[in-house]
Structures are given as structure tokens and as C-alpha cells.
Design a protein that fits this description.
The structure is a homodimer of 174-residue chains.
Chain A (H helix, E strand, L loop, with lengths): L1 H5 L6 H8 L13 H22 L6 H18 L1 H9 L6 H27 L8 H13 L1 H4 L8 H15 L3
Helix pairs in contact in A: 3-5, 3-6, 4-6, 4-9, 6-7
Chain A binds a DNA duplex (18 and 18 nucleotides) through loops.
Chain lengths: 174, 174
DNA sequence: GTCTATAATTAGATAGAC
DNA sequence: GTCTATCTAATTATAGAC
């Protein structure tokens, strides 16, 4: 997607139209304006993320749940590099109302990991000095895969998932 | 800085001029064009990062060196949120030649952590299945602090540094 | 449903007065 | 060294033909 490669502000409606194969005016049959186009891309992405996580079979123990989450996060994000990039990079180009909606969705997702770490801390499966901080640190680490992973590179996806799972597990003090 | 808040492409030379307190034409006394302005911001930031790291007193053991690096990284990045944001977000707006220079500088910095992890793996201070991957994962985790940390928030900087050090140490299998 | 044409605005960059 | 004025090109969005 053009937004991912060049950024929302740098891409014109004409360029988008050319990529889709229509003239610029025709785009306005599908979106009221450029801002709404960006907003819907990001909203759809995050709603799909939450729906996919809800449909994921959960583990029993906190340790299993943490591993399931880590693998799910990497898999889902590597499958959608463009959408992930946009969802992280274009937040500042959202108008305030749209921004609030997106932030809410993102927070809902973070809460899923947070509750795993919280449960695991109470059962002493994990040892984290600060649950919120660990949540954000682990998500940052996992999402970082998207910045360097390339299909057909040195490491297979399964190998990457396994290594990151290991680091996450240890970062959580498991 | 305006580039950090709204993005390179979204900010006009007129807006920059207004912030500095001059008219648009006067900016071209200080930069040949907008692209060079962005490039110099990013280059200066990364050169200062490398210079500051070079001036940092290193530890003796791999474990000490990893802790020094983690604390240095967090401290330096929290001191310059705007520059960090720009250096990470505006890579795609650099022209190819400029991009190559910036990427080289970034890689030089990553190599510093990589060599710590490599040395520590050989002495068995650390246990990482893949050194390059651990390097990128740790840097992503540390840089993630900038996305949520706010001065005067719930946790002091020293506390944040300490917690992250702990997670990094564990992620490295120390 | 798509195109062409265009309105209204804004962009980066330059020229010349002072 | 800065400002005013301006050039050229590109922008979002709309109107109306087909």
C-alpha cells in the first residue's frame, strides 16, 4: 500500500487512484475524503486484530497463554506488514475524534497481554516489577520483528517465533 | 519540532518559518531545500548518538557493559524524544543517497550492542540463540520507552531504567 | 459508476528590494 | 540577512457529461 511506503501526507489521491486503476474523482465514490480513508484502514486493521485474537485458542497456564500471545502477535503482524506500519506511523495524521477511536482499540489489545502478565504474576509464574511497563516493553519487542523480517531471509518464521517466545518468557521472569 | 508532531510531508516550509519567526524565503539562507533540512536533522542526531556512546565509560564484564548500554540508550533517547521520533519515522522520506548514509549510522550503533552480546555469548555470560536477532529485539524494546514515557509520570526515570535493565538482562539470558 | 474539467488552495523554491 | 512578491506545479475536492 502506498500509505505504508511513502506516508499518508506524501501520497496524493491521484496516486491512489492510479494504483487502483481509476481517475482521482472516482475515489470519492468510495470514501468521503482522504482522512476517512486512512481512518477506516486503521480501524479495520485493529478490529481484525482483536477479532483474530478472540478466535485464537487460549492456553491453560499463564506460561502457555504468554506463548500463545507471543506467537499470535508475531504471526498476525508479519502477515500484514503494511497495515501494521500504517497503524503505528500514521497516528499523528488522524484527526482527534478518529485518533481517540484508534487509541481505544489499541489499548484494548494491550489489555489482553496485560491480563496475562497480571494473572501470571499472581500465580508467581512470572516475576515482573511493573505489569504495565512489561506489557509495553514486550509488545514493542514483538512488533519490532516487522522492521527487519523479510520472507525468505536467514531465519524461518517458525524459528523467529520460537526465539522471540523465549526472550519474552525470560523477560517476564518465567 | 514540527516534523516530529505532524511528519515531514505534512509540514510546510511556511509553517517552519513561522515557528522560527521568519518568512518562508529566509529559510533558504540556511538550507538548500526541505529534504536537506530533514537529512541534516537525522544525521546530526545519529552522529551525536554515536559520539555520546563513544564518550560513555564502559563496564568491565559483558554484564556490566550490557547494563551500561541499556541505561545509556534509555537516557539518551528520553532526552531527545523529537529527534528519536523523526529518526525512526521519516526514513521513508529520505532520498536514496541520504537514506544510505543514515542507515549506515544506525547500523554502526546497532553493532555496538551486537558486539557486547557476542562477547558475552563467548564468555557464556549470556545465552542468546541468535545474536543479530537479540540485538534488534533489545533495541526495539529499549526504544519503545519513548512511546509511552512522560516526564513526571508514575515512574521515575531511574526506576524505568532499572526495570528495563532487568528485562534486557533476562532477555539476554544473563 | 467513471471520466473530464475545473475550482480553490497550497506547496517548494526563487528574484529582487532594502 | 530578511522580507515581499511571485512562479510553477501539485493538492483536495466537486460538478456535470456520459
Amino acid at each position: 500500500m502506498l500509505f505504508a511506503r511513502h506516508g499518508y501526507a506524501a501520497v496524493s489521491m491521484r496516486q491512489i487512484a492510479a494504483e487502483v486503476g481509476v481517475q482521482a474523482g472516482a475515489l470519492y465514490l468510495y470514501t468521503p475524503d482522504k482522512q476517512t480513508l486512512l481512518f477506516n484502514l486503521m480501524r479495520t486493521h485493529l478490529e481484525e486484530l482483536l477479532a483474530a485474537w478472540a478466535a485464537e485458542p487460549k492456553g491453560e497456564t499463564p506460561q502457555e497463554r504468554l506463548e500463545v500471545f507471543s506467537r499470535f502477535h508475531i504471526r498476525f503482524h508479519l502477515d500484514r506488514p503494511d497495515e501494521v506500519f500504517i497503524a503505528y506511523m500514521e497516528l499523528r495524521n488522524l484527526e482527534p475524534d478518529n485518533f481517540a477511536v484508534i487509541e481505544r482499540l489499541r489499548h484494548d489489545y494491550e489489555s489482553e497481554l496485560e491480563s496475562i502478565l497480571k494473572d501470571g504474576s499472581e500465580t508467581e509464574d512470572f516475576r515482573v516489577p511493573d505489569i504495565k511497563l512489561a506489557t509495553l516493553a514486550i509488545i514493542a519487542m514483538l512488533t519490532g520483528v516487522n522492521t527487519w523480517y523479510r520472507e525468505g531471509g536467514r531465519l524461518s518464521r517458525d524459528r523467529v517465533e520460537r526465539i522471540y517466545c523465549n526472550m519474552v518468557r525470560r523477560a517476564a521472569g518465567a
